[in-house]
Design a protein that fits this description.
Elements lengths: L2 E3 L5 E3 L7 E6 L3 H8 L4 E6 L2 H9 L6 E5 L7 H9 L9 E5 L4 H9 L4 E4 L5 H28 L6 H17 L1 H14 L5 E7 L3 E7 L10 H8 L33 E4 L2 E4 H14 L14 H8 L7 H7 L3 E3 L4 E2 H4 L16 E3 L1 H8 L6 H16 L5 H11 L10
Parallel strand pairs: 3-4, 3-5, 5-6, 6-7, 12-14
Antiparallel strand pairs: 1-2, 2-4, 8-9, 8-13, 10-11
Helix pairs in contact: 6-11, 7-10
Length: 416
């Protein structure tokens, strides 16, 4: 195999091919160079320090994948990843971090900064690495295509008539109910210590702070996870707690040293698991957990809280959110972060193309059929309203019908 040293200190292997996988490696590990240097379909370019790497990238060179040691002379590998992601011509180029030992802190930072993959040296067999690189390239290409398509075909804005109606209606209503709000806030303060209002981070078109009158004891959020396991209305009782690192992979392979691996190994402390089996279990954990949480007979609610919930008085401060533009009078209910992050598929996430709302199709149907509306039916109703905006079919009269349908159900019979 021919190895050619360029005028710069950058080393290139297999430069005589035209259709080869171009790998750009930043680091000094000789085993990485040897690992790919024996493969004819690979063209490897190596930079031993960050100065050489930056010179190569800033000169406009492209690569099919970038490999980078965690510890690189003359620079920071995470800053280098950020630079790669800022270059449009490298959008489809995966970035793989290499480390000599696995550390939770490195893994967590790599995950949070959306580095495409992390490998602990020595690398898996070349065949496995090439398959993984190809998968990452295809994944990035699909992601960019979807983002481009969404930005061009699914962009929407709230119609002027809807925004004007929101501001006028919310302003007059807020002025009219101001005396009631004052009395209720006094009652909340007398019954229990703490703020009279409650601020919760929610996701509509974008994350925002949603305001409500406090109807629970102070510090009740800490009890939510325990209550959700026992009293969540949407729970099916078949929740899978977490990935089991001791459970053997069902494929004809194992993490045992005498067996070939079906995919790269992932590490958590002293535990290890193949990536394929980890992904399968992670999917099962995610699917077993209900997307929405609604506690029946919530013991955290105070006496005043039960009263203001019964007549939806606790929702009135959200009129401020409407005036600010965080929400609309009619739309899809804004979700807490822990619920919104579970709605990640392309179809389901379309619900966020509609504005967040005080009321909507789901609220009406859930009171028409108390206790019978499933999680899937709720998502379908959210998508139905979102389609109005995607298809440019919005009408102020449609919103008015929903508001008029909401008035009779303000007195809630369902104790949730």
């Amino acid at each position: 195999m021919e190895t050619m040293l360029l005028e710069s200190p950058v080393l290139t292997l297999n430069t005589d091919g035209r259709d080869k996988l171009k790998i750009f490696y930043t680091g000094r590990n000789e085993m990485v160079r040897i690992h790919f240097g024996t493969v004819d379909q690979v063209e490897l370019t190596q930079a031993e320090n960050m100065i050489e790497a930056l010179g190569y990238i800033n000169a406009g060179h492209r690569a099919d994948v970038v490999l980078c040691d965690l510890n690189v002379y003359g620079g920071d590998s995470f800053a280098f990843h950020k630079l790669i992601r800022e270059k449009p011509e490298l959008d489809e180029t995966p970035f793989i971090l290499l480390c000599s030992e696995f550390r939770d802190s490195v893994f967590n930072r790599a995950f949070s900064e959306r580095i495409d993959d992390l490998f602990k040296l020595p690398l898996p067999p070349v065949k496995c690495m090439l398959k993984r690189i190809e998968f990452l390239r295809e994944s990035r290409a699909k992601k960019i295509h979807k983002e481009t398509r969404k930005s061009s075909s699914e962009f929407y804005s709230i119609p002027f008539s809807k925004r004007l109606f929101d501001i006028v209606f919310a302003s007059f209503t807020l002025l009219a109910v101001a005396p009631v709000l004052l009395l209720v806030m006094m009652a909340i303060r007398i019954e229990s210590k703490g703020k009279v209002y409650y601020s919760s981070r929610r996701v509509g078109r974008k994350p925002f702070n949603l305001y409500k009158l406090r109807s629970m004891r102070t510090g009740s959020d800490a009890e939510l996870s325990q209550l959700a396991g026992r009293k969540n209305k949407y729970s099916n009782g078949e929740t899978v707690a977490a990935v089991d690192f001791t459970k053997p992979c069902p494929q004809p392979c194992s993490t045992h040293k005498d067996y070939p691996l079906c995919s790269p190994l992932l590490y958590r402390g002293d535990d290890r698991i193949c990536e394929y089996w980890y992904g399968i279990q992670k999917s099962e954990v995610r699917k077993s957990k209900p997307t929405f949480i609604k506690i029946e007979d919530d013991p955290r609610v105070t006496r005043v809280g039960r009263f203001i919930r019964k007549f939806s008085i606790d929702e009135l401060p959200q009129l401020v959110n409407v005036i600010r533009g965080d929400m609309s009078l009619v739309g899809n209910r804004p979700l807490p972060l822990y619920e919104a992050e579970r709605l990640t598929s392309d179809i389901i996430s379309k619900r966020f193309l509609a504005p967040a709302g005080l009321t909507g199709l789901w609220q009406i149907e859930s009171h028409r059929h108390p206790g019978k509306l499933s999680e899937e039916e709720r998502i379908k109703l959210d998508l139905k309203y979102a389609e109005i905006f995607l298809n440019r079919q919005y009408s102020i009269w449609f919103d008015l019908r929903i508001i008029l349908s909401t008035i009779p159900i303000i007195y809630q019979q369902e104790n949730v």
